């Protein structure tokens, strides 16, 4: 599977996060459509099927991401 460059993933994640804030503030349909487009691109770029998994996968590919499995850590 081809993987997107980390710079592309960072850009997509930042756009999605910004749009999520805008969507929460005003609920504009244009913002929602752009979010849907970016979510689709993130899913394609990460080989996932939903935006939450795509965001996790994209963030793990970014420089500085944790390489260890933290699923067993407790708070």
Molecular structure report:
- The protein is an all-alpha fold.
- It contains 3 helices and no strands.
- It has helices at residues 6-26, 29-46, 51-61.
- Helix 1 (6-26) crosses helix 3.
Throw out a few tags for this protein.
mainly alpha, 75 residues, single chain
SSE diagram, text form:
Elements: H1 6-26, H2 29-46, H3 51-61
Helix pairs in contact: 1-2, 1-3, 2-3
Number of helices: 3
- Euclidean distance between termini CA atoms: 35 Å
Number of strands: 0
Poorly predicted sequence stretches spanning 5 or more consecutive residues: none
Compute the CA-based radius of gyration: 14 Å
CA-based shape:
globular
Helix content: 55-70%
Q: Classify the beta-strand content into a percent band.
A: under 5%
Structural class per helix/strand content?
mainly alpha
Q: Averaging pLDDT over every residue, what do you get?
A: 86
**SSE order:** HHH
Q: Major sheet: size, sense and barrel closure?
A: none
